[in-house]
Design a protein that fits this description.
The structure is a homodimer. The first copy, chain A, is α/β, with parallel strands linked by helices. The first copy, chain A, folds into two domains: 5-49 and 153-301, Rossmann fold (3-Layer(aba) Sandwich), CATH 3.40.50.1100; 53-143, Rossmann fold, CATH 3.40.50. In chain A, 46% of the residues lie in helices and 15% in strands. In chain A, the strands form two sheets. Chain A has a six-stranded mixed beta sheet with strand order 1-2-10-7-8-9, sandwiched between helices.
């Protein structure tokens, strides 16, 4: 049983009291530049600065009181760790986070700041997984995977429900793909709400495992990718890949250069901060690799967590 | 006859089809940091990236068809020049802009990009005024001063009408003061809508002519100020000063350092780009120079035009 549109509607009701309903912004300079009517769903304004808070909140608030008491756990060094820590804090339950000991200090501080209980481990997938397994067994905490989890996928889909409520006549929706949680939820929410809508995934050329997985019709793991889009480094999951195969029209890859250019354009013209992973969806329009001219295109700006000390231009 | 609340209501109706109704954003990290409930009126999202478009639009659309045909003119090197050029373009009339020949290329390009007809002159106030006078006489164009103009003041006040419509129970409104157009319009709109509301002006310590003018009870001109808040370099006007004296509780000055810190905080946490002039209103809360703890404080984020090539941190 995969995720259904009902799951996403339920998630939306469940998390409504805890999340921000983020605004949908438009920008004339952008529309003129790319020849498309763009509607930007601003998840960079979401709590913890990224859509990840939706999925984490849905997982946390799906638990029974008895389950919840034991807490939640995950291994992550990114936005998901912060999101889960904050969601758990809001429910008043513990969050156990396994982080590699080489994670940037700013990320450790952020997770700790939201009350997450951090266990540091060697920076290998094996060490992360074995530590998580141990914590789960010791505490009884519920494991919340960053993307390969139905509750998380359903939560991520709620952004698209809101977007379509506001702009019902979209022709296309574009979201970035990393592990596939966001694009999976997006594609179910979009297509089950509006049959003929087109769903496109945006991916960096330098981390094109989803593109290659679609070609090969099986999951091709991401291998040591080098891209500024640090939110899109992971491989697809066993839950997310079939959903993407069934509903996503195509994965379009974009260059590092066009990500930087379009990110700067959005900062300068739309006056909002987006992170490189979010810039992929604008970069598709920027590169005009596929013809969307004149269409109404919704894009999910997935997050706004950047280091203002080192800019890319 | 000064500007009345009716003038501001009329301006609001007049410019509604042309301007953006900008969102009011809140941010929990900011509220926690400063101990105040802050409501940010995002004029950085306004057309041309600043509130200036409101006043310029009101002036342009106040003209009769006959007057309008002859165009509008001003001398300015900043946001007002762009705002007037775009407002004129939207009405389909000429805008003659006198700019100092040492204005940054990016600003010249922006004004030209909006269809403004630029006359370059020596970078002195005398040269600017004599060129403007000549153009006015040659063309019959209507002079629209950046702030010392009742139509402009009324237009700038419309942001506060919108803010109070959305958040009626504000205790305080803070706006930056340069020439005084924004704070004048803000103070009339606020106090004539809600008698007991407090209106505070924010000014850089390094350009504290408004602060000193209030002390001296007469206009003290700004003399070669050195501040990163490049939108707040001008002196008060004969129209704006009496309005400010009557309605603004106090002018609070802020340090360059706290402007930079609070600007960075807003970029990082609220994920929006604000310019240094806008950071003054946050810096007042940041410095806690006056006690506003627990109050509902509306702030006008006046603009978001920054050079992303040179950041201040």
């Amino acid at each position: 049983m995969s995720v259904t549109i009902q799951d996403i509607h339920q998630a939306s009701q469940r998390i409504k009291p805890y999340i921000h309903r983020t605004p949908v912004l438009t920008n004339e300079s952008l529309n003129q530049k790319v020849g498309v009517n763009v509607f930007m769903k601003c998840e960079n304004f979401q709590k913890v600065g990224a859509f990840k808070f939706r999925g984490a909140s849905n997982a946390v608030w799906s638990l029974t009181d008895e389950e919840a008491k034991l807490g939640v756990c995950t291994h992550s060094s990114g936005n998901h760790a912060q999101a889960l820590a904050l969601a758990a804090k809001m429910r008043g339950i513990p969050a156990y986070i396994v982080m590699p000991n080489n994670a940037p200090q700013v990320k450790k501080d952020a997770v700790a700041g939201y009350g997450g209980q951090i266990t540091f481990c060697e920076p290998t997938l094996e060490a992360r997984e074995s530590n998580l397994e141990r914590i789960k067994n010791e505490t009884g905490a519920n494991v919340v995977h960053p993307y390969n989890d139905e509750r998380v996928i359903a939560g991520q889909g709620t952004a698209t429900l809101e977007l379509l409520e506001e702009i019902p006549d979209l022709d296309v929706i574009i979201a970035p793909v990393g592990g596939g949680g966001l694009i999976s939820g997006t594609s179910i929410a979009a297509i089950e709400t509006k049959k003929r809508i087109r769903v496109i995934a945006a991916e960096p050329e330098m981390a094109d495992d989803a593109f290659r997985s679609m070609q090969a019709e099986k999951i091709i793991p991401s291998e040591n990718p080098k891209t500024i889009a640090d939110g899109l480094l992971t491989s697809l999951g066993t839950l997310t890949f079939p959903i993407i195969q069934e509903r996503v029209e195509q994965v379009v890859t974009v260059s590092e250069e066009s990500m930087i250019e379009s990110m700067k354009f959005i900062w300068e013209r739309a006056k909002i901060i987006i992170e490189p992973s979010s810039a992929t969806v604008i970069a598709i329009l920027w590169e005009k690799k596929i013809d969307l001219s004149g269409l109404k295109v919704g894009v999910i700006l997935s997050g706004g967590n950047v280091d203002l000390g080192k800019l890319y231009w």
